[in-house]
Design goal:
By secondary structure, the chain is α+β, with helices and mostly antiparallel strands. Helices cover 30% and strands 33% of the residues. The strands form three sheets. Strands 3, 6, 7, 8 and 9 form a five-stranded antiparallel β-sheet that branches. The termini are far apart.
C-alpha cells in the first residue's frame, strides 16, 4: 500500500475529525476587521486638519509674541516707534498719555469676560499692519492689530500701559482664528 505524502501520517479517521474555520466564520472576521480599518482611516483626515490648525495657531501666536515683546521693550514715555520686518517698514503707535484709562487704537470686544481685538471692524492707522511673510509659499498675510490703555499719575507721567494685541492669518483657503495677547507693563 502506498501512502499519501500529503496526509502527514494521519489516518483517515483522524483526518475526518480535523476542524477548521467555516467560510461564514472567515467572512465575519473579515467584516469586523474591515469595520475597524474604515474607522481608523476616517481619523487620518481629521488628525491632518487638526495638525494644520495647530500649526496656523502656533505661527500666529509666535508672531504676536514677537510683536508684543517689541512693545514691552519700548520706554513707557514712547508714544510710537518704527520697525522693519523683512524690508517692510511699519510705524507703531503705543498709546496716548493725554487719554488715560481709555482704550486707544484698534477696536476691542469683550469675549468670555476678556478684551480681544475686534477683527470685524476696520483697522486703525498705526495701530495695526498687514505683514506678508516672503518665505511663505502660500502667500498668507498676518493681520496684526493692537489697542493700548495708558495709565498716568497725577503729574501726567505714564505709569503703566496695557497692550491688547491680536494677530490672525488671512488668505489661503482656510479660516484662521485670531490669537489675542493681553499684558501690562508698569514702572
Amino acid at each position: 500500500m502506498m501512502k499519501n505524502p500529503h496526509d502527514g501520517g494521519m489516518s483517515k479517521k483522524a483526518w475526518k475529525n480535523q476542524r477548521g474555520f467555516t467560510i461564514t466564520e472567515v467572512l465575519i472576521a473579515i467584516l469586523i476587521l474591515m469595520v475597524g480599518i474604515v474607522a481608523v482611516a476616517q481619523l487620518v483626515p481629521a488628525s491632518i486638519g487638526s495638525n494644520s490648525a495647530n500649526r496656523n495657531d502656533s505661527s500666529a501666536l509666535v508672531f504676536a509674541q514677537r510683536q508684543l515683546d517689541l512693545f514691552l521693550s519700548q520706554p513707557l514715555s514712547n508714544t510710537s516707534f518704527s520697525e522693519t520686518i523683512d524690508a517692510q517698514p511699519f510705524l507703531c503707535n503705543l498709546g496716548d498719555p493725554t487719554q488715560p484709562n481709555v482704550v486707544v487704537g484698534s477696536p476691542v470686544a469683550v469675549f468670555y469676560n476678556q478684551l480681544v481685538i475686534d477683527f470685524g471692524q476696520s483697522s486703525v492707522t498705526h495701530y495695526g499692519f498687514n505683514y506678508q511673510d516672503p518665505n511663505d509659499p502660500f502667500g498668507l498675510v498676518y493681520d496684526v492689530r493692537w489697542a493700548v490703555i495708558t495709565t498716568t499719575n497725577s503729574n501726567g507721567m505714564v505709569t503703566s500701559k496695557r497692550f491688547i494685541l491680536g494677530t490672525r492669518k488671512k488668505g489661503g483657503n482656510g479660516i484662521y482664528r485670531p490669537v489675542t495677547l493681553d499684558t501690562i507693563v508698569a514702572k
